[in-house]
Amino acid sequence: MKLHILGKNKKDKGSQLETLTKNILANQGYTNITLNYVGTGGHEIDVHAVKRQTVGVKVVEYPIICECKAHEKMISMPDYDKFKGKVATAKEENVNTSGLLIALSGAMGTVIGANDANKSDIQLIANDDLLKLISQLYSLPSSFDVRKYIRSITQRVIIDIDIVYYNNEIYWLIIFSKGDYCLYDSSFETLEPSVLINIQHLLVNVAPVSEYIDIFQEQKAFMRKTYIESSIIMFLMSDEVGIDDLLNIVKQSSIIITKKELKNYIKEIPFVTKTSDGSYALLSEEKISYIDFYEFILRGSVDVQMFSQCYYVNHIDDNLLEKIRERQHYIIIPNEIKKEVLFLLKHSPSALAYAIEEDKSITRYRSKDGKSLSERIDKGHSLMFLDNIMDRFDKDYCENSPLGNYYMNDLGIKDIIRKKELIINCNNGEKHIVSQEQDILLCKLQGYENTIVPVRKLPE
Predict the structure, then answer these.
(1) How far lies 157's CA from each of 184, 234, 299, in Å?
(2) 27 and 95 inside one domain
């Protein structure tokens, strides 16, 4: 992660860093913060501040002087020696004075070595340390959390996640392959067009970026596309359909679409063929790889009606389960639980989406032909797989309200009972067992007949 401080010119960029330093010091409890301060001996100080602390019955002042280097060159020994002289002069006036040498581009090894060797009152603050201080000042999430969030929105390959600072505002810069990038404020809100244009104009001078991408709009377009494509598949599950009828059916979902656009979407669906009379139909069963079929359907947005279609449910069978096993490097699914595993996969889109995608936390410990280091590892992988699909069914049932009507009315599921037990064994031989059950049923909200909510039943 890098920090980019923007400015209209070198002077403005330096002023931006000075203001940022001022804000950081204020956040740390410093007062009387002055920019472009003239110190003892006429030395020019970028930022000067004081922290007061009560020691015994006296108030002791701890001044700090800061040199802010926003240029692209690393701090050299002459730069360091010059600032060291300023700190020494300031200490003659107040021995408690210390210095911050803030270097946006870092410092040469000789400077770092000299500063460490002298155990100086000077702190060198470079990219990583400055990012840490900014994160504290603006309460920013970690880069790991940001990356995880971005991956939930787009499948683009993330090259860098950087922070941009300008005029007291923080922006997230996410750079993808070929320099494509997106830019959002610290709360990941889309920038106003005028702000975005201004930031972009300054950004190209300091960061390796090319084309701007709005991943939220891109995601919205992807969700629309996948919803239309999965809907087309759903309509063709029961019969052949002509283009005009398909167009009318899709439009019933309040989607604005032209016939030309619809035809283009149909062309991109690998499981659809055109019949001799010009209608459209699904390929014959022997020509469809159903693990790819379900992967295609579940990759984006899907009409909930899909999951109650006989064609959708009936092809989640032993053959598909075997393909799933192959994708998971032939994990073992005991015969006695296959029926229940298939039930979960048929009725939980989240569970099926998990199962058909390789789980590398399992497969990295298995060869592609299913060999593992021991039988116990095999059993462990089976438990992990089952736990994951159970968790996803539980989440779909208890948290995904659009599926509530499907579970209640189409499947007629009365309730589910969660069981949890902890068995705690101690070194002294003591054993503690804590267990509980929780009954969760689905209910319609009074006055909102189409709204289904999970309700936790109170104990008897």
Answers:
(1) 18, 31, 17
(2) yes
Domain count, the chain: 4
Q: What CA–CA distance (Å, rounded) separates 344 from 251? A: 32
β pairing state of 58-69 and 98-103: parallel
* The two structure tokens encoding residue 121: 């009152």
* Residues in the chain where the model's pLDDT stays below 50: none
Counting every residue, how long is the chain?
A: 460
Domain final residue pick, 410, 430, 446: 410
Are the beta carbons of 356 and 316 closer than 8 angstroms? no
Task: Enter the tokens of residue 438.
Answer: 């929780």
3-state secondary structure of 284: coil
pLDDT in tens, 141-184: 988 899 999 998 998 999 999 999 999 999 999 999 888 999 99
Residue found by looking up tokens 């994951």 in the block? 388
Same domain flag for 13 and 147: no
Is 431 in the same domain as 316?
no
For the entire predicted model, the pTM comes to: 0.77
Q: Which domain holds residue 444?
A: 415-456
DSSP readout, 1-17? --EEE--SSHHHHHHHH
Same domain, 240 and 381: yes
Question: Does residue 255 sit in the same domain as residue 355?
Answer: yes
Paired tokens of 116: 């460490």
Q: Find the helix packing angle between 127-138 and 10-27, rounded to 10°.
A: 60
